[in-house]
Amino acid sequence: MVSDGPGEHDLPPLDTLAARLEYLFDHIRPTPEELGDGDEPGRRYTNKEIADKINTLSAQTGVSISAAYIGELRRGVASDPRTSHVRALARAFDVNTGYFVEDDAASRVMEQIAILSELRRIDVKQVALRQVLADTGLSATDTLLVEQMVLRLREATESTARAEARTPPRGLI
Fold first, then answer.
1. Integer-rounded Cα radius of gyration of the chain
2. H-assigned helices in the chain
3. What gap in Å lies between CA 71 and CA 52, rounded to an integer?
4. pLDDT tens per residue, range 70-93
5. In this structure, are residues 110 and 23 in contact, taking their beta carbons and an 8 Å threshold?
6. Can you say whether the dihedral through the CA atoms of 139, 145, 149, 151 is positive or negative?
7. What residues contact residue 66 under an 8 Å CB cut-off, 6+ apart?
8. What is the pLDDT of residues 42-54, one digit of tens each?
9. Could you tell me the pTM of the whole model?
């Protein structure tokens, strides 16, 4: 089967609730506002942090959950949560509830997470490049020009790679 969607071939199979939940823990990170003073940016959520996010809204939603139960869901020990728990988990990770029950929704969410991760990675590289350029004594205008040149080169390289991937290989006749 040929895949037309972006990055579909890179997406792991998520055939259980535990696998889908673990994917979120693997790929979604606490925001800077959620991190404490001693916390390392980019670290994973803990079961307790997700439970706390859900329980903070329990007065509004009527849903509470324990860190232990989240751990059981992640390990597949508990595999049939209440609908309210699924909604609360989706809200805590800021994903569509369908992610947990619909393959198409899960694929869309996974692709969105991959795109966001790539954008964050690129942004970090741009900040590092900007600092290196500033350290060399270039003016702000020259720094911006170099950043734009790097961006254009990256786009050209990616465009060439995509074109080559679409061109069938030449074989001996």
1. 21
2. 17-27, 47-56, 58-61, 67-75, 83-93, 103-135, 140-166
3. 13
4. 999 999 999 889 999 999 999 999
5. yes
6. positive
7. 51
8. 789 999 999 999 9
9. 0.63
